[in-house]
Every structure is written in C-alpha cells, then in structure tokens.
Amino acid sequence: MNSQLEKNQRYTLIKMDSKYKNLDQIKNDVLSQQHKEPFKSKLIEFSEDNEESYFLYKWYEDSGEAAECKIPNTGETVNYLCTEAICEFSTRKIKDANNEILPKKDRLNVQKTEVIFAQKNNQVFAILMTFDNYELKRIKKLIRMSNIEPLPSEYQIVPSIFTWLFYKYITEKEMIDNNISIEGINGFTGNVLTDENRFSGDSGNTPDLIITKAFLANNYDITSIKVDLNVDSGCLTSFYINQTNTDNELRIMALKNSTRL
Predict the structure, then answer these.
(1) Contact present, 257 and 5 (Cβ < 8 Å)
(2) Each residue of 83-115: pLDDT tens digit?
(3) Which of 18, 83, 181, 256 gets the highest tally of CB atoms within 10 A of its CB?
(4) Is 141 left (phi over 0), alpha (psi -120 to 50) or beta?
(5) Are residues 110 and 223 located together in one domain of the fold?
(6) pLDDT in tens, 139-185
(7) Residue 143 lies in domain
(8) What does DSSP say about strands 3-4 and 108-120: parallel, antiparallel, or unpaired?
(9) CA distance linking residue 227 with residue 176, whole number of Å
(10) Does residue 92 share a domain with residue 62?
C-alpha cells in the first residue's frame, strides 16, 4: 500500500571507504565510535576526562539488526541498517550575568539525525537525513573523515545530467530506466557564464518556458532541478536534486505529498 510523505524529506548520500564491504563491519567499527568535540573557550582547557570541556557525538546504542530491501523489477537487493547520530552542540548563550561560563547542562543543545547505512555489491553507503551543513559536519566527524571516500561517478551530479533529463522529457522519451519514467519537470536553477549570474524557472510547465529553452540552446549550466518520477511499483515521487561543490556527497529532497511504498 502506498502512502504520501507528510513533509519534505532531505537525504545526503556519502560513500564509506572501500575497506567496508558489509554492515557487520559498520556495526563493529563505525557504530562503536564516539567523538569529543572541544568546547572552544580559553576559560576551559580540553580534557578527555572533563565533560565540561567537550561536546559528545555518539550513535544510538541499540541500532537493531540489518534488514533487506528488494528493488522493484530489478531482482537486486540492498541490505540496510537504521540508526541515529546524537550530537551535542552549544547554545548561543554560554556565559551568565557575571560573564562566567555556564555549566554544560545550561549551554547544551542536542541534535538527533537519522542515518541509514546501505550495502550493495560489496559497497557501503550512508544516507544522512539532513541538508544542514552544521549537522552534516558533526555526523561526518562521528563517522570520521578518513572513513569517507568520493562517490562513484554514477552517483555524482554534473550539469549535463540535468540537461539530459530535460531533453528526455521534451523529446517524449521519458523512460530513463526499465521501470522509471519522467512524469514532469517543475523547476530549475542555473548559471549563465559565472556563478554570480544565477537564474531560475519555477512552473508546472517549466520545459516550455523561454528561459528554459535559452539555457538548453546555449548549453548554460543547470545546477538544480525539480522532477517528478513515476515508478512501475506505483510511486510518483517529486525530487529536488541539487549539484554540490564536492564529489563526496549527493543531496536529494523528496517533496511533500510524494508517494512511497
């Protein structure tokens, strides 16, 4: 039975280092880690033994067991493990009326972010349920940057992919896979010659807009796109796909009211 997303869902995909081949390795190595982020103050010297001097990043203690997901109409399976990154960080107010550092409990925020580790063909990826740069930075420190490597080329977004999607839709060759088709394109952003000259189109009829045709005709860089994809399993999902400035991550937002299995 299909249901609709009640709000926009943000996903950031990263690739775990090639030394990780399965989810057991993730549980034994990555999920057993903690990170202590020093509290940046000249009044408190960092010490591993002093909780007042750092913010703790850790994983939810009971991540459960891995599960299996079958990809419709492909015969492929993906093993996945759901967990949660719990990261402490500072409030804006860190001093009292006497200009003294507050006790940690009085200057503490806690961020909880769902994370899914997915294994496919001896490769392991992490899906972080956020776009927020501060959250992403904290979670990557918890995972450890040395455990992250660039995404394979098939997961990297370049402007030519957006242009390809437009041409597939405009020429009525909407099928982009055996079971996925383009239902509509509802918006885009792009640059003309430089990053400072940024334009956007936002319409249910975006492919017919004059600005869209100008971008395609002049081969200007398209940097993000809103696209509706229809899957044979009955899902109609609206995505916002954004080009990032790094080959280490892919950001996709599934829009509110998209259907899911």
Answers:
(1) yes
(2) 999 999 999 999 999 999 999 999 999 999 999
(3) 83
(4) alpha
(5) no
(6) 999 999 999 999 998 888 877 777 888 888 888 777 777 778 888 88
(7) 3-150
(8) unpaired
(9) 12
(10) yes
